[in-house]
Amino acid sequence: MTTPAEEGPRRPPADGPSRPEDGPPATTGGAAGQAHRAERLLRWYPASWRDRYGAEFTELLIADLAERPRDWRRSADVARSGVLARLGAAGLASHPAGTARAGLATLACACAVFLTFAAAMWAQLAIGWQWAPPATRATRVAMIVMSGAMLLLAVLAVLAVIPAGWAGLRAIRHRRGRDLRGPALLAGAGALVLAVGGRHFGNGWPGTGGHWWPHQGLVPGGVAAFGWASTLSVTSYWAHPAALASFPAAEVAWMVVSPAAICCLVTGTIRLLRRLELSPRAIRFESWVGGAAGLAMTAFLAGALSWVTEGESGPRGLFQTGLVDAACLAVMGLALVTGGRALLLAWRAAGAGTGWGTASR
User: Fold this and answer.
1) pLDDT tens per residue, range 323-336
2) Which residue of 40, 262, 310, 323 lies most exposed, with the fewest beta carbons within 10 A?
3) pTM of structure
C-alpha cells in the first residue's frame, strides 16, 4: 500500500470519501469501526506527517478496510512506512518527511547523550588524578585526549549557539517568536536547575583535599567538580540500594532531579532548533560544527576505550574500571553512530535543497 508522501499529495474526490465499487455498502457500525482502525494505523506516522496527509490517508485506509477487512500485509506496510516516516522526521532515514534541520536536531540530541556519559567518565578520572598520578601511560594519554576532546566540544557548543541565537533574536524582533517561548522556557529552566544544583553539590566533590601531582593541573578543580555533580546519576549505586541509602537524602534527590533537568534542557533546545527559521548558510555552518563534534566524540571515545581496556587499578582503586564504564562506552558508541547517521542525512537533505525554510514542529 503506497502512502501519500510516496505518491505525492492527491485531492480527495469532490463527492466525498472513496467507497469500494464492489460488495455491499458498509453499515454505520462497520464504518465507525473502520474509521477507528484507520486512526489507529495512522498513529504509526509522526504528528507532522499526520497534519499534512492524515485526512487523505485515512480516507484511503477506510476504503481499503471496507474492501479487505482483514489483511496483515496492509498493516505491515503501514507500520513499515510509518516507522520510516518517523525516522525521516528524526533525520535518521532518507524519507520525504526528513529535513536538514531534523537531522541536525537529532545530532544535537545524540551529542547531549554522549556528553552526559562522557562527563561522568571524565570526572571519574579527574578525581583519581587529584589524589594520585596514574600508574600506566595508557591512563595518562587517555586523560589528555579526553580532556582535549571535552574542551573542543565545549567550544563547538558555543559556536553552534551563535547562529541559533541570532535567528531567535531576529524572530523576536520581527514578532515571530511566539512559538519559541515554550521551548525557550523549558531549556532555560533545565539549564538553571542544572547550573544551581551542579554548583551546590560540586562543593562535595571527592577530589577536594587531593595533592598537586605533576600535570594534575590539566583539569581545573571547579570544572571537574561541576562535571561530577552534574552526572551523579550515572552510577552503579542504583543497583546497590543498601549503599545508596547511606547517601545524604539531598544528594539522592539531586541524582533523581538532575537527569530531568538535563532532559528539559535538551528537549527545549531541540524544539528551538526545529522551529527556528535558519538560513541555508546557517544550516551549512551548523552542519560543519556537527562534523567537527563527531570528530571530537570519536577522539574521546578512543581515549576512553584505551583506559577501560587497560583496566588500571591504582591506589584505592582510583582508576579502576567497572561495568558502569563499559556501559558508558556502549551508550557513547551508540550516540556517536546515531549522530553520524543524522549528520550524513542532514548533509544530503541540505544538498537536495529540502528543509531549508519550513519549520518542523
Assistant:
1) 888 889 999 999 99
2) 323
3) 0.71
